[in-house]
Amino acid sequence: MTGIIFDVDGTLWDSTDVVAESWNLAIEENSDLHLNLTGEGLKSLFGKTMEEIFEALFPSLSSEEQMRLGTLCYEYENRLLEDKPGNVYEGVIETFHTLSKKYPLFIVSNCQCGYIEVFLKSTGLDSCVKDHLCYGETMASKGQTIRMLMERNQLQEAVYVGDTQGDCNACKEAGIPFIFAEYGFGDVPEADRRIQSICQLTDMTF
Which of 83, 116, 137 is the last residue of a domain? Predict the structure, then answer.
């Protein structure tokens, strides 16, 4: 096994309350919509692509307006997360430092550009993560994005750690094993390999 690839939201941290705060402000200042987004309500949308999230939140707007407002929401989000980072799950920092001594670690997320960088900066995990790639860069499915990251890092084998059915489906598309983080946002009944805490990865055989 040549690499471990991680999802971010629901796997490494929970930023939903901060995201909701930033998006509510962006919507209030840049549209006539009257929405009151909550962190809990956003959890079901995290992991989807930008376009899917924009369509779900702004169905009354044209696709152009959805993209304009959604892009502003992401800009507000990245700025606020610089000052108010998400809640990092227990054991993430220690586990990354331990695993990085044995395996190259990577991140692939359906997020916007800049989001993974904010996560790495706020957690101090830059030195542990060899490379990362997101939907904002590739505009491709998560499975395709995983393959792109594997190809540019010459990864012959890898596993993906995520918390949603979408993550599981992406692993099928990419042709790599999936490890389900049960403590996250989603449910994956079919998952064979599961963890209740990220710390369990340090004792796993890959």
Answer: 83
Cα→Cα distances 85→18, 116, 205, Å: 8, 12, 32
What does the block give as tokens for 38? Answer: 């909550």
CB 106 within 8 Å of CB 34: no
Find the CATH number of the domain harbouring 155. Answer: 3.40.50.1000
pLDDT tens profile 167-190? 999 999 999 999 999 999 999 999
Q: Within a 13 Å sphere around the CA of 22, how many CA atoms are in the beta-carbon half?
A: 23
Q: Could you list the residue range(s) of the whole structural domain that residue 53 is in? A: 16-83
Its pTM stands at 0.94
With 0-12 CB in 10 A as exposed, 13-18 as middle and 19+ as buried, what is 63? Answer: exposed
Q: Are residues 10 and 22 in the same domain?
A: no
One domain, residues 156 and 107: yes
Instruction: Give me the average pLDDT of each 10-residue run along the chain (206 residues).
Output: 94 97 97 94 88 94 96 96 96 98 97 96 97 96 98 96 97 98 96 97 91
197 and 109 within one domain? yes
Max distance between CA atoms of the chain, in angstroms, equals: 53
Q: Do 78 and 85 meet the contact criterion of CB atoms below 8 Å apart?
A: no
Together in a domain, 65 and 135: no
| Among 165, 184, 188, 187, CA closest to 15 | 184
